[in-house]
Design goal:
Layout (H helix, E strand, L loop, with lengths): L23 H5 L5 H16 L2 H10 L4 H10 L3 H12 L4 H12 L1 H13 L6 H5 L4 H7 L5 H33 L10 H10 L6 H17 L7 H5 L3 H14 L3 H17 L1
Helix pairs in contact: 2-10, 3-4, 3-5, 3-10, 4-10, 5-6, 9-10, 12-14
Length: 273
């Protein structure tokens, strides 16, 4: 899956990749050792993969059979959507409504795929299989990598580790659900989101990123009581364009638009004369 290619030329932006041949800028830029990429990928894959146990317990507690629970992890493989589905079913929701909420929550992976397809540039025969691993965690590990080789290693190791562990721990959790008794009392449905937030938090380094994350959380919490499961998370993505628009206006400053209009009018007047 991880076809070896020469490191592409850097565009000067952190994590930027291009399809062109390496040049002086790329050669001068230090590459990330493969061992370091594998270490980071394993850390994310193991930490999140173990939370599949929580899904197995929650799913079994909501009334799904062992087979249904395991098939969900094998074929759906996106934790937030899986938790949204079994949570809605456990609350007595309509199965079609629960499935629709899980589907809309999983739509975000399609947008991840648009970006990852450019970075990874995998052979066509491999892309359908790689698409199954396009989730929050593989995206978070892949995007910061400095070269295409590092991006492919990070994506592959994270995806493989997480897929294997998530499915194994789902099975263990579903088998052990009866021993735990009342699964709602344990609050295990919050385990997977909590783990991912803990991994994501250190990546929010700039003011823009922190403000965007804060606004997204506020939107999700505000809309949660009034919209179906999964929809508030999708709408919280609107925080990014809103913050970028407001910060762009702040940088331009007041009156910039009027000055631009005046300059345009002067240019037009000059051409007429």
């Amino acid at each position: 899956m991880a076809e070896q290619t020469a490191p592409p030329e850097s565009t000067g932006a952190p994590g930027a990749l291009s399809a062109g041949p390496p040049g002086p800028a790329a050669e001068a830029r230090p590459e990330k050792p493969d061992a370091a990429v594998v270490r980071d990928a394993l850390g994310v894959g193991i930490a999140v993969g173990l939370s599949g146990f929580a899904f197995g317990v929650t799913s079994a507690g909501s009334g799904l059979s062992l087979l249904q629970t395991c098939v969900l992890s094998l074929l759906v493989f996106t934790g937030a959507s899986q938790f949204a589905l079994v949570g809605a079913l456990a609350a007595g929701g309509n199965p079609y409504t629960a499935a629709a909420g899980a589907f809309f929550l999983g739509v975000r992976n399609a947008f991840y795929g648009l970006r990852l397809s450019q970075l990874l540039a995998l052979p066509r025969a491999v892309r359908p299989f790689a698409a199954h691993w396009v989730i929050d965690e593989t995206t978070a590990v892949t995007l910061p990598q400095p070269t295409r080789r590092a991006a492919r290693i990070g994506f592959t190791v994270t995806g493989l580790t997480l897929y294997v562990l998530w499915n194994l721990t789902t099975l263990v959790g579903a088998l052990g659900a009866e021993a735990l008794g009342d699964t709602d009392a344990w609050g295990l449905d919050a385990a997977s989101p909590a783990v991912f937030l803990a991994l994501l938090a250190p990546m929010l380094r700039s003011t823009t990123e922190r403000v965007t994350a804060g606004l997204a959380v506020l939107l999700a919490l505000t809309l949660l009581p009034v919209l179906p499961a999964g929809v508030p998370v999708l709408l919280s993505a609107l925080a990014a364009p809103v913050v970028l628009f407001l910060m762009g206006r702040a940088k331009r400053g007041p009156g910039t638009g009027d000055e631009d209009d005046a300059m345009t009018q002067r240019k037009k007047g000059g051409r007429r004369s």
